[in-house]
Amino acid sequence: MKIFVCIKQVPDTTTRIKLRDDGNGIDESDIQWIISPHDELAIEEALRLREQQGDSTITVLSAGPERVTDSLRMALAMGADSAVQVDLPGDGDSTMNASALAAAIRRLGPADIVFTGKEAIDDGAAAVGQALAVLLDMPCVTVVNGIDYGDGAITCRRDVGGGSIEVIESPLPVVVAAQVGLNEPRYATALNIIKAKKKPIDTLTAEELGVTEANRKTRLKNFELPPPKQPCRIIEGAPADQAKELIRVLAEEIQAI
């Protein structure tokens, strides 16, 4: 099987985001970059599938500038066979990224299965997986937290809320977007991280893939940080006095009741 995994490099959730002076983007100078957590689930699922299907290869792709190679090397350290940087601007939107990734997969394929995360934790767009499926003319199953692999088909489970489980069967090839609960991603060992630094990473340019600014459908500008949180206020005293004071504050000062 030819297995492809599309990952996105995102700021670590502990990073304190700062804006550029012109307000038109994020200051990337002090950002610690990581693989988006849902994409780690996608990598892990590809590795587990390869363990079942011995004659399989895993190619991991990431669209973005040169910095994404760090995340690609981490995917190699986890166990992927090869990695490809799809050279695009860091602010490429979902349509541009999906167009380039689809073109790369067509060039490297044919694919038997494509894994993605259900969404990236930076923009939460949850659009690339579905767009990939359209561009590759494949079925797509999203928010997947369980998969059974059969002969030429897969059966996916999705938690749709209220204790209900949706079961979807799809033929291969297919695009699958991973949700929390699908698996537990493995840690890359220190030895494998060192080995991954020596492995080659191929690069495909936007020009090679026929992707231009015309593929971009959205452009973000005028970034603003959320307002600072109000300081916490501690109400002292006995429980009965605290309750009375809390009601007074809610009614008179905050006017919430």
Structure description:
This protein is of the alpha/beta class and 257 residues long. It folds into two domains: 2-215, Rossmann fold, CATH 3.40.50.620; 229-257, no CATH class. Helices cover 30% and strands 26% of the residues. The chain is built from seven helices and twelve strands. It has helices spanning 37-52, 69-78, 94-108, 128-136, 190-196, 206-209, 239-253; strands at residues 2-7, 9-11, 33-35, 57-64, 82-87, 113-117, 140-144, 146-149, 153-161, 164-171, 174-178, 202-205. Strands 7-11-6-1-4-5-12 form a seven-stranded parallel β-sheet, sandwiched between helices. Helix 3 crosses helix 4. It is globular, with a radius of gyration of 22 Å. The N and C termini lie far apart (61 Å).
Question: Summary?
Answer:
This protein has 257 residues and is an alpha/beta fold. 30% of the residues lie in helices and 26% in strands.
Task: Give the secondary structure arrangement, pairings included.
Layout: E1 2-7, E2 9-11, E3 33-35, H1 37-52, E4 57-64, H2 69-78, E5 82-87, H3 94-108, E6 113-117, H4 128-136, E7 140-144, E8 146-149, E9 153-161, E10 164-171, E11 174-178, H5 190-196, E12 202-205, H6 206-209, H7 239-253
Parallel strand pairs: 1-4, 1-6, 4-5, 5-12, 6-11, 7-11
Antiparallel strand pairs: 2-3, 8-9, 9-10
Helix pairs in contact: 2-5, 3-4
